[in-house]
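retry 2 of 3: previous attempt timed out while embedding uridine-5'-diphosphate-glucuronic acid. Reduced batch size to 1 and resubmitted. Inputs unchanged:
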Amino acid sequence: MSKLCVIGTGYVGLVTGTCFADLGNQVVCMDIDDNRISQLNKGVMPIYEPGLEQLVLQNVKAGRLTFTTDYAAALKDADFAFIAVGTPSGDEGEADLQYVRSAAEAIADLVEKPVVVVNKSTVPVGTGDWVADIIRKRRNGRPLQFSVASNPEFLREGSAINDFMMPDRVVLGSEDRKAAEAVAELYAALRCQILITDLRTAEMIKYASNAFLATKISFVNEIANICEELGADVRQVAVGMGLDKRIGPAFLDAGLGWGGSCFPKDVKALAHMAVLHGSQPQLLQAVMDINRMQRRRMVMKLRKNLGSLDEKTIGVLGISFKPNTDDLRDAPALEIIHLLQLEGAKVQAYDPQGMENAAKILKSVKLCKNPYEVAEGADALVLATEWNEFKQLDFARIRGLMAKPIIMDGRNLWDPQHLRELGFDYTGVGRP
Ligand code: UGA
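retry 2 succeeded.
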């Protein structure tokens, strides 16, 4: 059993801490946010993540998982100090490292026994060295035996626990091989492939992986747009491509493109790093441009169908950036709603888990209780997020509720033929 301190209880820190506790370690999760910690101590989760609440409660009950705002108490006995704090985008797309710095300073100030500092936050290449420097300088000659390792996370929101417990790989980077091997031991029970590299390479693997996945999606969206012009079906094209093992079937769903707290921030940060060091990241730039256009194309399609959008009522199904999360960060739905409102449209929307967050930011949108209320009086219905509960709607009822039978399926969730038979004017993405 190892003693772990996890700094930051965002979705990465909370999932990581909880899963390590479940693997039998003693874990203290620490956050500077009083409210978040007092809620966690009452068993209230700060995010919606399937399976998380139960796993937290189980491990708290077993005495392996605790929550605190007290840096000193959290770090005192730690063999491993995981940094899992936020790295928001700065004005130029650069990652803002102020929280990583605070965590490193706390470690320097409060730890007195040998420790491995493990960075889980997505940080610019070179940050591991920078963290080591901060700790060294801050100790100001006071000895501390420590090493820094990078251990990027590959957790998807909505399936984070599964992704932790059944990873495709664990990546560890450090200049101190022994430290990396000690971290590898924490993952031994998962029996997955563990790749040990130097610090900078591990940091780069994270950015390159997210950027590649975002590229796959933008690629298929570009193909979808070409399919629309040429009368091919992008869904079949993706199946046909994905059967080639060199390509693979994942992340080839055309639609409204990628959002969330990771891809937009990470692709931008990678492009920013490239520019700073004299490269021209043309592909990354195109990947971002295509993604931005994909949302606008949806509004253009609506305009084409409805003429002016002024005073039109548009229903939006799904607000979260993807299903199984209440996270609205950079959700395609938000930008589409904003663009519709700029053109004078009235918007009514519903999301299975995102309504609480939506109420905080969508002031002039009618927030509905279910998909049928969204359809009521709508001149068009836009599907922005492919939640399971939207798959089997009563479309005959929806047809009766809508002012005009126009459906924009932004995620290719529904069967066009079935909807057309019911009298809908159906438009998907990249489908004839
Ligand atoms: C992503 C990565 O998948 C994780 O490996 C990584 O750890 C995480 O970012 C992170 O850096 O923290 P996540 O943002 O939770 O995870 O969501 P994804 O499932 O990757 O989806 C990202 C976006 O792409 C969503 O908006 C989704 O709707 C969109 N997407 C995904 C598509 O438009 N098409 C697809 O085929 C797949």
